[in-house]
Amino acid sequence: MPKVAAFVVSLLLVLAASPAAMAYTAVPGSYDVVGRADLYQGVEYLKLAKPAVPVVAHVAHVLPGALVDLRVVNASDKIPTSSKELETTSSMCRRVRCVVGVDGDFHFQGTPAGGVISAGRMMRSPNPAHPQVTITRDGHLVGGPLDWTGSLTLGDGNRVPLSGVNVSRVTNGLVLYTPAFGSRTPISGNVELVVSAAEGLGTLNRASGLDLKGIRSGAGAIPANGAVLSGDGAAAQQLLSLWGRVAGSTLSPHAEMLVQSPVDAAESIGVEPVVLRDGRRALPWLDPNVVNPRQPHTLVGWNKAGDVYLVAVDGRQSESQGMTMAEAADFLLGLGVSDAVSLDGGGGTVFVAGGSVWNRPSDNNPADPTQYEERGAANALVVVARPGAPLPALSPPPPPKVDPGAPAAPDGSQPTGAGGAPLGSTAGSPAPGGGTAGEAILQPAGLDGATHGGSSNLFMTARDGGSKGSVVTGQEIAAGGDQVRGAVLRAKGDGPRNAIATSIGSASVVAGTVAEAVANEVARVRHGDRLSTGLGLTMVGLVATLVRRRRRNGSFAGSGVT
Description:
By secondary structure, the protein is an alpha+beta fold. The strands form ten sheets. It has an eight-stranded antiparallel sheet with strand order 1-2-3-25-24-26-22-23, with helices on one face. Strands 14-13-20-18-17-19-16-15 form an eight-stranded mixed sheet. Strands 4-32-6-27-28 form a five-stranded antiparallel sheet, covered by helices on one side. α1 packs across α8 (511-524) and α8 crosses α9 (539-552).
């Protein structure tokens, strides 16, 4: 096997054993990385800027295999029904000790536009005609309408269909009101049946027992250990009839409630619109006020490899005009997203890390117009550490600034990661075999065979004759993770897309196959490709090209190229 191919195989095998945090975020064309941080193992933050427009976007990239979960958090842990009941995203994020989060669904005077499922429980039923973003119990994301049904099964086996959960009155329908709605049902002339339950009602796809306790006319209290079934028209008559049978001892007061969906949803909130589906714009986009103007947007994207992206685009300000929905779709595609949805945008767009706002919301503070004002939200979509995993930083440091045109510092200290630790600043540190990591470089004709301290080193350069470069030491290669990432970022080239980066999530590498693919890639790379060309193709650039193309074919679980 040629030396170059052999070294690629060795490097890939080392990287394949590293955690999911090895993957890196692709940067859409014409955008510069002006800030970055590692928020948590497997969660990367990038601040991206496009000076020509101008526009600024904040991206959290959740990598496949990261020990985190996406969760829906509700304002004050309930379904808000007025603007007074909204809560800021930063407050919700602090309350659940989130890694990162963005504002959630659109709302009308406080009430969310779509349905809400949190921790597998339906807290507000979705409108089948309104799109949702849904996270399944196995961690997949789905964008689109969420079908559901509900029913009350009586002791004699008869069923009464459920028309809604914690929504407004439904004509001739039966609505379930749980404590998630608040302390009282909405004002109406409905017939209401009060029930008790040993556990909260509304768990998706699982029947819950309840006992019928009493009947009333009009609004009233919702018991903390139960719920209220509110019937209008024909449904009201059904409630009166069944309670008459219970009171007459011809029907058992015990019943069962079942709320079910063909999607095994763990979390879900409303969206508008679905932006991308299977790598294409999910047209038609119906609301021109959301779609047409350049303005702030909150977006959620994902792909089949398991990458998830939370994005906040600043807008309506001199530093950032924002994006149209078409521009947002192109930006998401540039990140490597295949499917995406839009959450509440405009003045509601906010990006929070550990409870701190990292973007610049567009609403000015009336008391101090130089400062922003964070709007309240009906709910938020957040990333939290899984049970048993280390807790994230409560207040991570502000994201470090990265000057895409500035030369790298001698010790490679630009940029830093979460907690301020330098990424890749191992110059002068002991190599695994002893001694000091040195500067053996990769020549255009192949790998220099020299070693320092028992570890081979690698030199990376930018494409198109970029003058900047960086040493990847043997120690960094052995350490993997952020050490290699730091060295990659030190190799930033002369243009916004010239940095060369590579990573593998939980890939399984077969040496012979990789070596053959490497040889093929050398022959297939054309002048003008995103990385390097001809004999100037560096080793890391070669690996990055290989990983990118292998990823398209489904061979690698998670990878990215900047």
